[in-house]
Design a protein that fits this description.
Layout: E1 2-8, H1 24-37, E2 41-45, H2 51-63, E3 68-72, H3 77-86, E4 92-100, H4 103-110, H5 114-129, E5 134-140, H6 147-159, E6 164-169, H7 176-189, E7 197-202, H8 209-218, E8 223-226, H9 240-249, H10 251-254, E9 256-258, H11 265-276, H12 297-305, H13 333-342, H14 349-365, H15 371-381, E10 389-398, E11 402-411, E12 414-422, H16 425-437, E13 442-450, E14 459-466, E15 472-479, H17 482-495
Parallel strand pairs: 1-2, 1-8, 1-9, 2-3, 3-4, 4-5, 5-6, 6-7, 7-8
Antiparallel strand pairs: 10-11, 11-12, 13-14, 14-15
Helix pairs in contact: 1-2, 1-11, 2-3, 5-6, 7-8, 8-9, 14-15, 16-17
The structure holds acetyl coenzyme *A (ACO) and 3-methyl-2-oxobutanoic acid.
Length: 505
Amino acid sequence: MRRLRVFDTTLRDGEQSLGITLNVEEKLEIARQLVLLGIDIIEAGFPASSPGDFESVATIARQMKGVAICGLTRAVEQDIDLCAQALRAAEHPRIHTGIGVSPVHMAKKLMLTPEQVVERTAAAVKYAKKFVDDVEFYAEDGFRADPNFLVHVLEAAIQAGATVVNIPDTVGYANPWEYGKLISFVKENVKDIDQVTISVHCHNDLGMATANSLAGIIAGAGQVEGTINGIGERAGNTSLEEVIMAIYTRRDEYGIQSGIRPKEIAATSRLVSRITGVPVPDHKAIVGANAFMHASGIHQDGVLKDRETYEIIRPETIGVPENTISLSARSGRHALQHRLQELGYDVAGEELDSVYHSFLELADRKKEVFDQDLYALMGDAGAGPQGILLQHMSIATSGVDTATATVTLDLAGEVQTDAAVANGPVNALFSAIDRIVGVPAVLEDYTLKSVTRGSEALGDATVKLRYPDGSLVVGKGISTDILEASAKAYLNALSKRGRGGEVGK
Ligand SMILES: CC(=O)SCCNC(=O)CCNC(=O)[C@H](O)C(C)(C)COP(=O)(O)OP(=O)(O)OC[C@H]1O[C@@H](n2cnc3c(N)ncnc32)[C@H](O)[C@@H]1OP(=O)(O)O
Ligand SMILES: CC(C)C(=O)C(=O)O
């Protein structure tokens, strides 16, 4: 079977999604999970873009073993210098450098002639090779390039020492049959192409990123790039979980295997969603909450008779186990720990006690605690012990458009109460918290969704705060009371930075 390398760019292209900025700790947590998932190459960031991203790449390079760590650069020496510096401690460092190759990118963005672009290609790859053996070259907007010119650029990159050549559909313009044809054309016409790996990197502007990536793989690409949950610039990237499961589910037809452990897919998806604050749509392929649910009678009847009637993937394959235990306020630590283990969480000792305490609080308000509740609970439990604690809150609404909130917070042992009036209960709540904590950030986004169904469902609130230094902090909170969930999310975001707004560890 042919081996496909899986290149994850959740921490680079995924982070280019509007509204996401990840700090070092958040990137590290995702990187650890990507290693468990079996990713071959982690693109950890763009070191030249900010000191924070430099630090993230350097930290991941230092700490992650058994996986290649990659940084992105322009075909610019200063970018490559910084990238090489950030990757210095990596076990397997890779520099990913490149330049736009389509007529519009060359003429309108770079203001370079095609020959100048070829020169910059060769120079950048040669320069990167001074620092690392493994250099990947990206031909940005390669799908919209003149194919003959693309051949010329790729030959220059290979001659200069590139080990991987990436042919992105940067703007998601390709159809699968066209993209596959382009990869075949490259394979047939680029000199020494057999000495390097061809990589595919597709965007989802027309909803075809997965199909295009698969077409490129069938045509001979040895590496696929993408992100978890398909997050990324504009309409996003190829969803790696979709490509992986397409190849896995139809492995006899594809004849391709990857080093991915499918059982880690669900946990990875949840982690990325929790940390980035980008929800996974319920109907999303593979990782959506409904992906394995059967709603209508004819389907339910079929599945009860034989799962294969309507199921092409067993949920357990991607780490969503079948549920046999019903959890309620009468359940003990063993049952909770067992279920959490089945869901991929290893909790014991004091951590189990703390989670059990939150579980009982929830179970007292709900008849049954479902898996989605537990996922939310584990996200909430991860808020960290040094957070600002909500001791008490009360809301009074007077008339249609004003509300008064009174809040009592425990700031590391210092208990303070204050109140605020605003044009709605959530605004009043956040204003009362602001009065106590002195928040230097601006509320950029607030969303509330229900975790499970029914009137007892948990409210899952996400808050995004923009700090004066431009950084964005995401906070999550859950509760059966939606106002309490909102307050918890706001406090969770605040607890990630100090009271004065300094970056927390
Ligand atoms: C398709 C992709 O996803 S590419 C990756 C996108 N990622 C990012 O942009 C990361 C975040 N970006 C940044 O932090 C900043 O844009 C930086 C640090 C990279 C550059 O910042 P600045 O130096 O202020 O330049 P700015 O972003 O305004 O403009 C980009 C410049 O790079 C040039 N450029 C763009 N791509 C490339 C490239 N691959 N190689 C060489 N030059 C390039 C542009 O032509 C422009 O040059 P000009 O200033 O001579 O007109
Ligand atoms: C930088 C490259 C790989 C990219 O993200 C794109 O072209 O979409």
